[in-house]
Amino acid sequence: MQNKVLKRNLKWGNWMEKNFVINRQLLGWFFSHDKWLRELLIGSLILMVPIINMFIAYGYWLQIMRNSMRNEDVLPDWTGWKEKFILSIQGMILSFTYSFLCLLVFAGLGLVILLPVSFLSKDAALTGLGVLYFIFCFTISFVVMIAIAHFIKQDNLGAGFDIKAVLNITRRCILKMLLLALTVFACVLGPIILIFIVFVMLAAVFPRPGLENVITVVLYLILIPVILWSNATFHYGLGKIYLDAVGAPPAVNSVPPLLE
């Protein structure tokens, strides 16, 4: 019994070590390109423009995922806005459709499960509904990601609505997506918190009128490129995860799959 536990712990430890090493490689992928600084600066400027940023930047990230699935590990440029716009609209159609259907399903399940409880305690019913809603939305977000990835890979919007295939792929790679999301999120949140603490300390030591506005502007200027990089990295990694889940072989020079 003790040997089984030890083997299981060793296997889990090897799994974690392997994937965090791979994630470190993945996190540096964006900066391994010769033109990364140019793309980061142009993209940051685009992200500052309302409405345009929502369509063009999202289309850019979907292009990165498509290149990742094709084992073309290169950064796309910011030309071809029409293609980016069409990709973003198709991705949004999938996201909104899945979100709406899931909202209907959740509403029905919530009534069936929590209606009897509400007669006993309304607070308990509301708390339970909130917890269920969070878990439900968190899980569905991964399904939506795979639906979009499936559409990108098949180059067919209808493929994204193949619920059976989407759920099957999601089941095989949801843990990998969670690890990727947590890793990217930690790399984004850590430096931002550190910079914020430094600025707060400076404001306390050297109080000046309007310093809060300066801090806000500086944090905003730092956050924009970080958002661009984090989404680019996540969508690149998602492309590799999708390939691994469907059994497609990665390219020799690409970042290896996030899990085996």
Task: Explain what you see.
It is a single chain. The chain has one domain (2-246). The chain has seven helices and no strands. The chain has helices at 2-27, 36-47, 52-69, 81-118, 122-154, 163-205, 211-246. Helix 3 (52-69) packs across helix 4 (81-118) and helix 6 (163-205) runs antiparallel to helix 7 (211-246). The longest helix has 43 residues, at 163-205. The protein is globular, with a radius of gyration of 21 Å. The relative contact order is 0.14.
TL;DR?
The chain has 260 residues and is mainly alpha-helical. It is built from seven helices and no strands. It has one domain (2-246).
Q: How are the SSEs placed, and which strands pair?
A:
Elements: H1 2-27, H2 36-47, H3 52-69, H4 81-118, H5 122-154, H6 163-205, H7 211-246
Helix pairs in contact: 1-6, 2-7, 3-4, 3-7, 4-5, 5-6, 6-7
